Amino acid sequence: MNSTGIRVPKSEAESVRRELLARGIFNPDCRPIQEAGDVIFPITAVQSDLPYEQSVYDFPEGKRSLSYPSLVDVPEELRAFLPSSFDTVGDVGIVKIPEELAAYREEICRAIREANHLRAVAVDAGIEGEFRIRSLIPCAGDENLETEHREFGVKLLLDPSKVYFSPRLAGERWRVASLVKTGERICDMFAGVGPFGIMIAKHSEPEVIHAFDINPHAVEYMKRNIELNRLKDGVVMPHLEDSAAGMGRYGEFHRIIMNLPHSAHDFLGSAVKHIAEGGTIHYYEILETEMLAVRLEELNGLAGVKRVEHREVKTYSPTMRFYGFDVLF
Question: Which SS3 state, helix, strand or coil, does residue 238 take?
Fold first, then answer.
């Protein structure tokens, strides 16, 4: 039967499969097919943030695999509150449980783990602390949340209870990496475990990427990930330091990445000081939708700005969106 399909290299198939399932866009009426070393997954709609070939294919008809809600034992009147999506980081699932279902959190996590063949599932209890880390409560499977996450040929070792990481930005990381020109000098101001920098180093040819973070766990994982991905020495340079204080030692940059969506705005001045003429700042912020026009006006008014491009990367809440801005100088 015909369905939109997404063609993925076999080495990346499992991580993409989990992403499609977590987003609820895997078409369960069809079975995946293999062709010329690739796996083609059936999906319900084209996904603009995933940089794989997408087209219409004739798939074998498939049995509907069990979705996690079909495995959950909760009162019928509460089923409407079941989470419609969750994150997968490697083989770990992370889900937010509404208050109405708090008494059933272990049951929900068990079902998510079983339906998606995950090693562990944890409940997201909210962001906390100086490092903006998710407070995670292991609820099903292994209590050890350290995992290896894969996206677009990049391996990332991390513990999501100790570092900030969003698997939903995989497409955005690929997009930025695809823009990098040979010999660029790049600064990642809030690098975490290094997903932007390592993606760029793996798929482009920058001169250097200075990657800053103030979370010692994140910088330690970043160093391990540089080795794990067998990057050339000196391409990604980790710094356990506030980027606003440290980036000035390394001159101007052709590209600056600002992925700190709750407070990147506080650091815009530092970024503008160190961007080279012809450079780009990739700036991310979570905003109420009515604030978008205000932020665009402000960014266009920065000294030296030639133009600003923006896009909605993902939904954050009913009234808030995660926006990406490319500020070109």
Answer: strand
